Amino acid sequence: MAADPLLASPVAPAAPARPRPPAGARPVAPAELTGVELLAGLPWTALQELATQAQRCSFRPGQLVFREGDQGDSLHIVTTGLLSVVRPSRDPGLILQRLGPGDVFGEVGVLNSAPRLASVVAVDSSETVEVRKEHLDSVLLADPQAMRHMLGTLALSLTLAKEELARHNSKLESKVRERTQDLRESQLELVRRLAHAAESRDDSTGIHITRMSRMCAQLARDIGMTHDEAEQLMHASSMHDIGKIAIPDSVLLKPGPLSPEEWEVMKSHTEVGAQLLSGSRSPVVRMAEVIARTHHEKWDGTGYPDGLAGEQIPLVARICAVCDVFDALVSDRPYKDAWLVEDALAEIARLGATHLDPSLARLFVERRPDLRAGE
Ligand SMILES: [Fe+2]
Asked: Model pTM?
C-alpha cells in the first residue's frame, strides 16, 4: 500500500487535473448508481440519463481526486481500489476515513457546489464512477418528479440522522451516568474502608460505624431531609472519628479513666480528623470534615474543640451526636457493658436538655432507632 502524500504536510499540492476515462472503459450501468443514497430514489429513466453521462475515472497511487477547498462539482462511487479522506488544514497526519468499493464521496458537491470539506487521495490504484453536478442538474430540471424524489430522500436521511443522533446521545448520557455512579461507588467504598480502618482499633466489628451512620440517615429523613441529603450524611457520618487514627493505643484502648493529659490527646481526634478531610472537592468529604470537627460539641456549649452552643453547631453534627451517644450507650466498650435500649433512650431524653439538641433527642426517642440496621 502506498503512503498518503497529503498526510505529511498541510501544504496542498497543485489542483488535480480532471482524470481521463480509462481507455476502453465500459459504459456505466444505471444499477451502479443505485448504491448512492442520494440517487437511489430517482426514477429509472433519470438514472439511465445520468448513467449515460457518468464517467469512469482511474487514479494512480498518491493521486488526488480532489482537494479540500476546491469547488464541489461531482460525486464519486468507488468501484475498485482504496482511497483516503484527509483534511490537512485542520487534522494533519490524520486519516479521517478509508474508502473502498461501494463507498460514495463528494455528495455535497453535486447539491450546492460548496467548497470540498476534505481532500481525497488514492492509496492504491483506484477507479471511480463520477457523476457531475451539471448532469444531475439537467436531469432534475427536466423531471420535477425526480427532483421531488431526491428531496424526499434527503428529508428522510435527515430525519433518520436526527433520530440516530438522539439515540446516540441518549446512549452516551446513560453511559456517563453509569460511569459517574461507578466512580461515586468506588469513592464511597474507599471512604467506608478508611473509616473502618480508623475504627477497627477500638471496634473490631465495625458495627458502631455502620449502625450509627444508618441511624443518622434515618434521623435526617425523620426531620425532612431529602433522600440524597440523608444518604450523603450516612456516608459522611461514617468518618466522624477518623482522627482516632492519630491517637496512640495507650490512650485509645486504655480501660480505665484518662488522665487530664491523655484526655487532651483524645479530644484532638476532632481537629485531626477535620485536618485529614480538609480541602476536598467532594460534598460528602466536605460534610465529613464538618462532622469530624464538631460531633463532640454540646448543645449547652460545654463540648469541644470550639465550645459551640445551640444552633451554632452544624445540624449534621447535632444529628451525629445523638446517634453516636446512643450507639455508644448500647455497645460494649473496654470500660463498660452495653446498656439496655430503654435505659439508653431514657439517657438520650435526659441529655436533650444539656448535651444534645433537645428537639432531635425527643424525635429520636419517639421514633425509636432501628438497631437491626447494619447487622
Ligand atoms: Fe468522636
From this structure: 0.59
